[in-house]
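R.M. (postdoc): so does anyone remember the format we settled on? I'll just put the structure tokens first.
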């Protein structure tokens, strides 16, 4: 009998949970950073592999300059502290890139 103690972890359905995480944090933080001028553009690109239950997600953020990139964690932390908990009040409900 094969050893079953080393099983791969279960596959999680990323679209629901991960999409909520992206909308509630990643997207709204970048929307505010864009409003402040540190971020020029940001994109969330998803590709569903029809042969599998895998979804590939690419997150891209274009910063104003190297200084804005270097200061990103401090800026994002500051933004997270200031934003309300209700993400729908902060970012428009759009699909694709912003």
């Amino acid at each position: 009998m094969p050893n079953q103690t080393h099983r791969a972890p279960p596959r999680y359905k990323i679209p629901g949970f991960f999409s909520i995480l992206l909308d509630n944090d990643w997207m709204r933080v970048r929307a505010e950073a864009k409003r402040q001028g540190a971020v020029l553009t940001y994109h969330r690109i998803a590709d569903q592999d029809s042969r599998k239950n895998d979804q590939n997600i690419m997150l891209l953020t274009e910063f104003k300059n190297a200084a804005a990139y270097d200061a990103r964690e401090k800026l994002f932390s500051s933004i997270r502290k200031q934003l309300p908990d209700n993400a729908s009040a902060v970012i428009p409900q759009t699909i694709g890139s912003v």
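R.M.: ...and that's the designed sequence above, right after the tokens. Also worth knowing: Helices lie at 14-36, 66-70, 72-82. Residues 34-82 form one domain.
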